[in-house]
Structure formats: C-alpha cells, structure tokens
Amino acid sequence: MKLLTTAPTGRPICALLASALLAAGCSEQRSPSQIAAAPQWLSATGFALDAAGEVLIPGVRSFTPQYPLWTDGATKRRWIHLPEGAAIDAADPEVWSFPVGTKLWKEFSFGERVETRFMERLASGEWLYASYLWSNDAVDAQLAPKVGARGVCETALGTRHDVPSVLDCRACHEAHPSRVLGFSALQLAEARDPLAPNAEPLRPGDLTLNALLERGLVRGDHAALLDASAPLSVATPPRERAALGNLHANCGGCHNAWGPLASLGLELGLRRGEAQPALRSTLGVRSHFTQGGAGHALRLVPGAPLASVLYQRIGSRFPATQMPPLGTHAVDTEAIALVREWIDADLALHVAAANTNTGGR
After folding, report:
1. pTM score
2. Rounded to the nearest 5°, which phi and psi values hold at 115?
3. Helix axes of 238-250 and 333-341: crossing angle, nearest 10 degrees
C-alpha cells in the first residue's frame, strides 16, 4: 500500500464549531509552535512496536472504549502513558483532568497500519496534537503535514481516508473540557454494552476503570466513578442504552454541557449514566439547523426517524449536513440502523410516559 504524504489543504471543519473555538482562543495561530515541538518520527514520542505489533515501551498501556468512534470501518488500537507517580484527577466523574506529561496514541488500520495520532499534555497545560504516517516497510511513522493529508489510502468501504490537520484535531478534542475522548469512566467500564455498534472486545492487558482505581491512577470519589461507569440505568431499554452510548461517543465530544457549543442546548454526552439530558435536549426540541429555506424541524420525532433532524444528519455524508462533520466519509450503517429502530420503537415509550404523567394533556 502506497501512502500519499502531502496535501494542498486540510479538510474544512463545521463553521459553527470553528467560530466557537476561535472565540474561546483556540485559533490556528498557535498551531505552528505546537507542530514545531512535535518529533519528526513516532518513535521519538516514546512509542515503539515490535514486529508483531506489540508495544515495546514499559508504562505504555492499551485501552478499548466500549462505545468506539466511527472512522469508516478502521481497525483501531489505543494506548496511554501516565507519568510515574502521577494520577488522573477525576473529582468531576465526567470531566477528567490529566496530569502534565500524559501521552496517548491511537492507531488506524485499513488492512495495513496507516496512521497513528498522538496527544501529549505539555508543561504549559496545553495539549500537543500530531499525526504520523506509517511507511511501507512499517518500521516507523513520520510526522504528517500540519494541514493534514487527504486520501492517503482506500478504506474497506471504498472511500478515501483523510489524516486530520492539527486544527481538525483541536476542533474535536477542545470541544470537550477534558480534551481526551474515549478514556472515561463510562468508556472504560468492564461491564460492556452488548448492543454497542462496532463494539471491540477488551484486549489482554487493557486498562479498565477498576484497574485504574486499584492502582491509584485515578483519584476521585470511587462510588461516583463506578456510578458514572454504568452504561445507563438498568431501567433503560437496552436498545436506547446502546443508541445513546453511540451518540455519546460520536457526538457528545462536541455536543455537551461544558464546551463551546453548549449554547445550542444539545447535550449528547451522557452524565452519570443518565439518559435524561440527551432526551430532554432532543425530544420535541426544534433544531437550530435549517436547509433549503425550510423551517426549524424537530431534533427527534418519536416514531418518525426520517422527520428527525438528528437521524437525517448522522445518516448524511454531504459536507454541509453530515454529522460528525470530520473524520468520516462513509455512513455507519450499524449505528444508523440502531438509531432508526430506537426512534421508531423506544421513543414512543417516553411520549406515553409523559402523557400519563400529565393526564394526557
């Protein structure tokens, strides 16, 4: 497989999110200094693999989120390194604060290893973001251009895979106050959601929430953290639990109660295993999104997925309407089918309950 290593431009991001990040001080003007600090080779970040693809560096541990982010069918592996003697501050069970020196790597493969993305928390408290492209001999990976690289390889779904620009990385990660996505109490729970779309099994040696707590690598209220790790209330219908978990992983990084898009009032990031924030901000709520001069449709319409803006947008890959706006060119058919069934069947239960509570008024 031959990889393209240059590109004339990075992929554009959602205009609203870009504006919000710029207003928050996340301008691209800081990117050159960050890129200059990134090593030219992945091995210089403190990461190395043997011929079998196993990590050689002590202290680098793998993890697997129970609700994975969709990237056009990519096979992924993820690792984290915490500085010796340091721990994650989880005083807020939903917003973890990572110590200076924390490093994370995420590998993307489409039949062969293609890229590895890297994050490091710097002494300034800011995060360094970089992407590395693997060479054909797979000995090491070289730093990608700061504008990213488009169409570096074909995916199994017939689309082309894009390596993100630094600004793209920051647009996604800095929309959530912890900056690290996919490494949380909910995502690291040992009790896995059996209906999670594109679920990946735990690998031998993977870090889980219990392992982090046992080793003192996460500091906070253990009871609250274990509560936050539950997929959702046991009273939640299983299909709804899986649908909301998928939206949490693929949409909640931006659409949450803390980030620059909080003013939209769309909260798809789950908190303490509760479905209510997501349902309260979607059921019968008019969307801010309009298309073709049409009025503001509802985010979710029970029993009518095609009339629901949320379903329309996650099922679109037209650049002006697709959600998420970055990182994917192909629709996640497994997740779309789950969300459609959830809107068709389970959401009617919430309407019936609401009518019962209000006497049908």
Report:
1. 0.88
2. -145, 155
3. 130
